[in-house]
Write a structure and sequence with these properties.
By secondary structure, this protein is α/β, with parallel strands linked by helices. The protein has a single domain, classed as Rhodanese-like domain (Oxidized Rhodanese, domain 1), CATH 3.40.250. Helices cover about 30% and strands about 20% of the residues. The chain has helices at about 25-30, 50-55, 70-80, 95-100; strands at about 1-5, 5-10, 20-25, 40, 65, 85-90. A 6-stranded mixed sheet has the order 1-2-6-5-3-4. β5 (about 65), α3 (about 70-80) and β6 form a beta-alpha-beta unit. The longest helix is centred in the middle third of the chain and has 12 residues, at about 70-80. The chain is globular and about 35 Å long. The termini are far apart.
Amino acid sequence: MHFGSGVPTVGVDALTDGDFLLDVREDDEWQAGHAAGALHIPMSDFVARFGELTDAAPQDAKVNVICRSGGRSAQVTMYLAQQGIDAVNVDGGMQAWEAEGRPIVDDKGQPGTVV
């Protein structure tokens, strides 16, 4: 893990299947393709829907926040840290996820793509 511009960051290569993943991209991006098992709360709705994260995340789990390239997720990571939640930004976002050959599914569970 490294700290870029004050935000704790993790590379896709360091994530394992059991890690909790929060996708903060918008609905159209999510529907086109996302990591299976990720929790989806768009950044635009995040503060209003914050309770969904606290309900879904395992107690004391590190929250790995992902977006398309890492910009929006960095902002959400900073917000979560201010709330006392152990959160890290996934460096390179879903573009890095795809480049690593990680599986991507669409909203119907079929192979998806990053838009």
